[in-house]
Amino acid sequence: MTIAAFDLAQFETATGADRAALAAQLDDMCRSTGFVILTGHGVASETITDIWAAANAFFAQDVAAKQAAAPVYAGAPYGYLGPNQEALAKSKGVDTPPDLKESFNGRARTLNAQVDDPDARAFALAETPWPDLPGFREAWTAYYTAVEDLAARIMVAFAEALNLPSNFFEPFNTDPVSAMRALHYPATIGQAETGQQRAGAHTDYGALTILLPQPKSQGLQVMQDDEWHDVATVEGAFVINIGDLMARWTADRWVSTLHRVVAKPDQPKRLSLAYFHQPDWNAEITPLDGSDAYPPISFGAYLMGKFNAAAG
Ligand SMILES: O=C(O)CCC(=O)C(=O)O
Ligand SMILES: [Fe+2]
To answer: Are strands 5-7 and 199-202 parallel, antiparallel or unpaired?
Structure first.
């Protein structure tokens, strides 16, 4: 099985029947695997080079320096999360040893005023504790801004793939509470514990994930027909996938596919960057096909429910 590729620039310059045909292809990809290799994205290679350098420099620090960027309170989602702090499979109710990874996590760019519940605000908009590394915050913000812009362009293609007006998602995306993580999977020596992965099997919660795996690295796998399939890295391309929210929004026309980063013995270290694109906090999510497949829900309430379920 291979994940199909979609050239965003080609779509954006196409018109008429050509454009409709490309939108229909994207719809197929989102219905069958929910994963797409995205080319023609236009993110400057310098922006990508800079964020890789920043992420590498961050994870190369000693533990104390990394811990200096620990979350502002225990349990806050942003900052440095060291080894043994997360088991993604638990979000699916599967009890496993912790994932073999560490991460640095950054908050949305703006302090969204729609998040008016104090508990939700304290969590979803907690401060990002920036590391004391020259250029890190600038490189992070430049890349974050670039993928945020890219996400808005992908949402245009998604709208057309769903036979909606091109700008359909715009009003749902005025001030999104998105987030980004840099993930570091240290080199593996010998066997992992039973059931332990670099990232346990999970689905993403939100609308759209824009993933940049380290070039030439291995390990990302998607579940299709009850089997795990490798997702090959394509130099210069992003891997994008839809999350649970998009599956719900499309009344399960599109699929939020189980994926993981498999742990194998004697693998070199691997880095990846994952940007999680969300609608506005107060966006009302009602099945787009007009059906009553799911009751309407506000995105913020939905997201907090996901976080609480994963923590519980
Ligand atoms: O590191 C990867 O390639 C995937 C990470 C992932 O799926 C996630 O963080 O949601
Ligand atoms: Fe994921």
So the answer is: unpaired
What is the domain-level CATH number for residue 63?
2.60.120.330
pLDDT at 169 over 80: yes
Q: Is the CB of residue 296 less than 8 Å from the CB of residue 282?
A: no
pTM for this prediction = 0.97
pLDDT at position 15 is 98
Which residues fall inside 5 Å of ion ligand 2, going by CB? 204
Centre of ligand 1 to C-alpha 14, Å, is 31
Q: Which of 221, 240, 259, 278 to mutate to test the pocket of ligand 1 (most atoms within 8 A of CB)?
A: 259
Q: What is the ipTM of this complex?
A: 0.99
Residue-number span of the structural domain to which 167 is assigned: 5-311
Choosing from 211, 234, 306 the residue with most ligand 1 atoms within 8 A of its CB, the one to mutate for a pocket test is: 211
Domains held by the chain: number? 1
Residue that has been written with the tokens 């939100």 in this structure: 206
Mapped onto helix, strand or coil, the DSSP state of residue 174 is: coil
Cα(271)–Cα(215) distance, integer angstroms: 9
> Per residue in 233-273, pLDDT tens?
999 999 999 999 999 999 999 999 999 999 999 999 999 99
